[in-house]
Amino acid sequence: MLIGIDVGGTHTDGVCIREGRVEAMAKVPTDHDNLLATISEVLRLILRDCKGAEIRTLNLSTTLSTNSIVTGHTEKVGMFVIPGPGINPQAYALGAQYHVLSGCVDHRGAVSAKVRPEHMKPMTARCREEGIRVYGVVGKFCTRNPEQEMAIAEALAPQADFVTQGHRVSESLNFGRRVSTVYYNAAVWRTFNTFADALEQSLKDLNIQADINIVKADGGTMPLKLAREIPVQSIFSGPAASVMGILSTAPQTEDALILDIGGTTTDMAVLLDGIPLLERDGISIGEHPTLVRALKVESIGIGGDSFISSRGGQLNVGPDRHGPCMAAGGPAPALMDAMNVLGHAAFGDRERSAKGIKEVAMAQGLSARECAEQAVHMAMSVLKRKVDAFLNAVNSRPVYTIQEILEDRTVKPKRILVIGGPAEAMVPLLEETFGLPVIAPRHAEVANAIGACLTRPTQSLVLTVDTSRGSFTVPGLGIHKPIKRTYTLDEAVHDATTMLRAELDRQGIPAEEGDIQVIQADAFNMVEGHYTIGRNIRVRCQMRPGVITTLEP
Amino acid sequence: MLTARNSLGIIFFPAFDWAISPTHPEREERLLYTQDQFREEGIFDIEGIREYRPLVATQKDILRPHFCFPNVQAVCTDSHLISAGGVIRAAQLVMEKERQRAFAVVRPPGHHAMRTVHGSRGFCNINIEAVMIEWIREHYGNLRVAVVDTDCHHGDGTQDIYWHDPDVLFISLHQDGRTLYPGTGFPSECGGPKAMGRTINVPMPPRTSDEGYLMTVERIVMPILEHFKPDLIINSAGQDNHFSDPITNMNFTAQGYARLTEMLKPDIAVLEGGYAIKGALPYVNLGISLALAGVDFSAVQEPELDREKIREQKSTMDYLSALCDQLPEVYFNPRPSDAVREGGYFVRRRSIYYDTDDITENQVERLKDCPHCPGLLIVESETADTPRCLGLHVPVQGCDMCSQEAEERFAKARQAGFAYAQLSDRVTKRYEYAK
Fold this sequence. Notes:
The complex is a heterodimer of chains A (553) and B (435). Chain A is of the alpha/beta class. Chain A has 15 helices and 27 strands. The mean pLDDT of chain B is 96.
C-alpha cells in the first residue's frame, strides 16, 4: 500500500492506494504551526479506513520549507562565495554574513587563481561571534571543478553544524541562482531536519516502517535521507503533485494543457508528448531565482471565487477575491455565482448567488442572466489570453541547433485536463472557449495527494569531460578526477548512466530498463592552432519523471 | 536583483550542428564557452535582458543586398539563413520597440561577403548586417544608418555593399591591411563618386591595446557619428582584436570592448569574427552584453590578463595620435572622386579572390551617373565555374528612370548572352532571376 500526503496552504490531503485503486482519502485543514499534528491526523483518518495493510512508501509533499522561507523563519547563514571576474558578486548578496573570497575557476574548470583559506580567519571569526552554525559555499563554475568549494567547506567544518556546497545542490550553470539555492538550503536545513526527526519518530510510534520520500517541484520525489541534505528541493512541490496526480488518473501521450482551477487563481501547465514541461533553469523564491528544478507552472488571476463587480460602469471579474462566493456564504458575488445563475453549476445556495449577481446587474442596467453571461465570458477570455501568451512563450524558447530551428517543434495542446473545485462545471465553457476536448479526471479533488502518492523518484546526473585537460567531473557526486585522453562520447554515456544507476541503487530507488534517459550527449572537438587537442564532452542523464502506476479507470 | 538600464534582447545562436570543417575556426565549439559563461553569469536573469530565438531569413531577404550566383541555394546554407535571420530578429526587436537594444550573437559571420556572392570569403557567405539593414529599409523606409565595424579584419564586404550609398555611413577600425587579411581598408578607400566620405577606414598598427583603440574611437568615430546623425547605429562586433586571438596581432581586452560599446551606444550589435573561443569570447561577449544593457561591467576581466604586458609602446600611440588628427578629414572634407567615367557610367574593374572556397571572380561594375538618385548598379561577373553573370541593383533611393532601365536590361539579359541574371529592384521590390 502506498500513501501520499500533500500539505497545502489551506488543506492537507491524503490518499492511500492499493493495486491501482484509491482505498481511502482524507482532507483536513492545515495547521502551519504544527504540521506534524496535521500529517498525523490525515494518517489516522486514512489508516482507519484501510487497516492491517502493510505500508510500503509514504510520499510527502510539504510546504514546510516554503513556509519557513516565506514567513522568514529561517536560520542565519554565513555565505562564502568565490566569484572570480564577471558580474559584481554583491548583486547576489544573501545571508547574515556574505563574504567574497579570492580564487577563480574558469569555464573549463581550470583554476586560474588560488583560493586562500588563510584569508578567511577574520571572516570566520565574525561568523562565530554572531553565533552562525550553518554555512553556504559557492564558487563560480564549481560544477566544472569543485575543489575550491570543498577546501572552503573543510575550513568551515569545525564551526559548522552543516555546510551546503554549490556543486551539491545542482549540476546546472548559473552562479547567482546557485548562491540563492545554497543560501535557502542552509537557511531551512535545521527546520527541515527537526521536522524529519519528529516525523520519523512519530511513524515509529505508529509502527509504520515505510520508506519516506519527499516530493520535489519537478514532479519527482527524493528519499527523506537525501532531502535532509538538500531540503531546498522540497519547496513549491504542490503544483507538481497535482500535475502528477492528473497523469496517474488520465495518462497522456500527446501535447496537452492542464488547468487547476482554484478559488483565487488557476494554475496552468503543459505536457509535451505527455511529459510535463520544466522551467528552464529553476523556480524563483520571491525575487531570488534558484536552480531548484520545477515544472513550468503559471498562475492566472481567475478562480471560482473571483470577485465580480461594477466599477465605474465597467463590469469586472477578478483578480481579487473577497472571500468565498456567495453560494458558499461569502460576502460578494463571484464567478461561481455567475455559473450558478447560468445553470452551468448547481453549487451551494443558488438563491444567494442570484441575489448577488442581480445587484451587480442592476448597477450595469442588465438582467441577471446577461450580467452573468458577460462575467463568465470575461473570465473565459482572460483564461484564453493568458493561456495563449503562456504557450507563445513556451514556443519561442531559444534553441541552439539548426535542426531544432528547422523542425520548429511547437507545443500544440490536443486536449485540456482540468481539476479543482469549479472544474466539472467549467468543462463545457472551456470546450467552447478553446475549441478543444476538455476532460475532468476522476478524483480531481485529491489529485494532489494522488500525485504525491504515485510519483516516482527523479534524479539527474551531469558528466563533463575535457580530454585535453584530462578532467572528468560529476559535480552531483563530488567526483573530479583525471581521465585518459582517448576517452570517447560513447564511454561517457555509458559511464554517466552506470553511475546514475549505481547512485539510485545506493539510495534504494528501483530503476527499470528505460527509466534512465540520456537528455544530452554532446562532444565538441577542441582545436588549438590547427590541431585537434581533445574533446569537450557533456552528458546529462536522468531518472525520468513519471508515475509508479496509473489508477484503474 | 540586477536591472538593465537599457532593455536588451540577445539572439544567441551557436549553431551547435554546423562547421566549415571539423578543425576550422568556424566550427561547432566556437560559442560553446560563451554559452557557458552567459549561463554561469546568469545574464538572462538580469531584469531587462531577454534571450530570443532567431528567425530564418528568406530568399528575398538575401537578394535585397546581394547578387548570388548561380543562385541563392548554391552559396547559402540553412546556417546562413538562420544567422541572417538572427540579425533580422535583432532589428525587429529594436524597430518594434520591444527592446531598446539588441545583440545578435550568431554564427557564421558575414562582413567579408560583398554584394556579388559566388562562395565564401573570409568565412563569410552572406553579409548579415546588410541583409538586416536592407530588411529595415524595406519595412521602415530609408533610414540613415551608421555601421561601425570593430572586427580586427577590414570589413571589405560591408564596404563593397555600401560603397555607393550616401545614406549608410561605414566606418571600419581594423589591424592595418599591410599586416593582415584581407589586405585592404586604407584611408584612401573612402566611398564611390556618389558617396564620398561615407566610407571611413581606420587602419591601426599591430599591438594596439585599450588606450590607443579607445582614443581612436573617441577622436575619429564619435565626432563623425555626431555629425552624421544616424537613425540607427550598428556595431559589427568582431572580437578578434583580443590579445589572445590566434589569427591577429592586436592587444584589445574585454574591458576595452565593453568601454567601446559604452561609448558607441549601438542600437544593434552583431557578432562577427573572433576565434579565441576560450580565452576571449566568453569575456568579450559578456562585457559587450553588460555594456549594451547598461549594467556594471567593471569586474569583467580575462583570468590571464596582464595589463603591463599588453600596453602600447609610445611609438604606437604617436602613430595613432597622428591618425586621429588626419582621418576625420576623410569625412568632413572628402577629396574629389577619381572614379573612372565611361559613357554615362562610373566603372570599376576588379578581381576578387574567395579565400575560403578558392574562387577567383572577375568583375566589371557600372554605376549609372544618374542626376536623380545614387544610380543603377550593373555588375558583370564571372568565375571559372559560373561564367557570364549579370546583376542589376536599383538602390532604395532609386528613381523611376533607373528602375526602368534595370527592367529593360533584365528582360534582354538572356538574349544578350548572360547565363545568369539577377534583378534586385528596391523601388519596385522585385527580386528575381531571369528565366
